[in-house]
Design goal:
single chain; mainly beta; 7-stranded antiparallel sheet; 2 helices; 7 strands; 54% strand; Activator of Hsp90 ATPase homologue 1/2-like C-terminal domain-containing protein; ASHA1/2-like_C; START-like_dom_sf
């Protein structure tokens, strides 16, 4: 019998946005905008709870085609306008807790570079 190990997967995305670092930062914390980062919509979203303080938790529950999808996590680091580090987990899919880091940097007035880094466990 073969023993297969889980594998760490890392994804990094860099995006330029026509906004300030502060506005981009708050888009990740405001419940009305937060649902867009997690590919949910007002039509399918059932629950959105958010306590955006270090150690605070968030929960997003979506219902699509009769299937409940829950995303939960904890905020580890919050530096206003600069950085968000949080955990992310989808309990229905995996017991593993992954991590998201988002950095915001002004490239020119009104232009922000957002760097999104995801590190997660891929079960085998």
């Amino acid at each position: 019998m073969k023993h297969m190990q889980n594998e760490w997967v890392e994804i990094e995305l860099v995006r330029l946005m026509k906004t300030t670092p502060l506005n981009a930062y708050h888009a990740w914390l405001d419940p009305n905008q937060l649902i867009h980062w997690f590919m949910t919509s007002r039509r399918t979203n059932q629950v959105i709870e958010n306590d955006p303080v270090e150690g605070g938790h968030y929960q997003i529950v979506d219902l699509r085609k009769g299937k409940r999808i829950e995303v939960i996590g904890t905020y580890k680091t919050l530096k206003e306008g600069e950085q968000i580090v949080k955990t992310i987990q989808m309990p229905e899919l995996s017991e593993h807790v992954d991590e998201i880091e988002v950095y915001f940097e002004e490239r020119s007035p009104g232009m922000t570079e957002m760097t999104f880094h995801y590190r997660g466990m891929l079960p085998k």
